[in-house]
Each structure stands twice: as structure tokens, then as C-alpha cells.
Amino acid sequence: MALSKDRIGKNAILLLLSDDSSEHLAMLEQLNWKSCTGKVGSMDEHKVVAAIETAAKKNGIINPDVYRESHALYHAIIEALNGITRGQVQLGSVLRTVGLSFAVLRGNPYENEQEGDWIAVSLYGTIGAPVKGFEHETIGLGINHI
């Protein structure tokens, strides 16, 4: 499926689910968009947030010295986690654990450059009781303006 210059969420999900992410990364670079991918597993939602924030900072997706960039990323992560956890962003406190892959994508999905950059976080993996075999697939997406 082809990437679309006006669909940041779709592109974040395609990057996440791609069997050949290098091909998608090359196409995103042509759009002047920044991206990174990674994995995280935990019973603590704050560790999921921290892993995604750390990857975004290390890969130059956001400038950690500019508060609005960190703030936008945080809200995109929380929105994606809401999808993963079905609206209750709780893991270990209710005996749930996740094993997730993530993609973070930053770019301007509008024709008008003055619209500025947006950020999307996509999550895919498993969620369930902390017992092997007691989990199911899950996916979440969060998008926020910077």
C-alpha cells in the first residue's frame, strides 16, 4: 500500500506494520518527514511512555528543549495508549501487560506549509494477563499537532 502525503496516521500505521520498513522510511524521507520505530513491553504504562519519548528524542523526532514538542508527543502517546487499553490507561494495577511495537512519525500532512508539523504514534502488539498465552492483539493510534 502506498504512502500518502496527507495521511500521517495511515503512514504511521503502515510504517509500524510494514514487513520492509526501510522502503517506507525512504518514502517518508522524500516527504521530509521524520520517523522512528521501536519495541516496548511492560506492566507499567509510564515505562511505555518513557520508551517512546526516549526513542523520539534520540532519533531527532522532537526537540527535547522545546516544551510544546514534548507535550504534543505525550498527548499522541496517551491517545494511542487509550486505543490499546480500550479507554482505561491502566496496566499493572489491573494485572495487564503489553508487548508492543511502536512507530513515531512527524510531518506536515497539509498542502499549506503554515499548518505546521503534526506527530503520530502508532502501537501494535499484545495485551493481556501476565501469563504467556493469555493475551490478544491490540492496536492504537494517536495524532497531535505540534
From TrEMBL:
Gene3D superfamilies noted in UniProt: Hut operon regulatory protein HutP
InterPro entries for the chain: Regulatory_HutP, Regulatory_HutP_bacillales, Regulatory_HutP_sf
Superkingdom to which the source organism belongs: Bacteria
Keyword Transcription assigned: yes
Molecular function, one GO term: mRNA binding
A Pfam family per the record: HutP
Signal peptide: none
Keywords, sorted A to Z: Activator, Histidine metabolism, RNA-binding, Transcription, Transcription regulation
Gene Ontology process terms (BP): L-histidine metabolic process; positive regulation of gene expression
Cited function: Antiterminator that binds to cis-acting regulatory sequences on the mRNA in the presence of histidine, thereby suppressing transcription termination and activating the hut operon for histidine utilization.
The protein's assembly and partners: Homohexamer.
HAMAP family: HutP (MF_00779)
Family: Belongs to the HutP family.
Name used for this protein in its record: Hut operon positive regulatory protein
Organism: Lysinibacillus telephonicus
Protein's gene: hutP
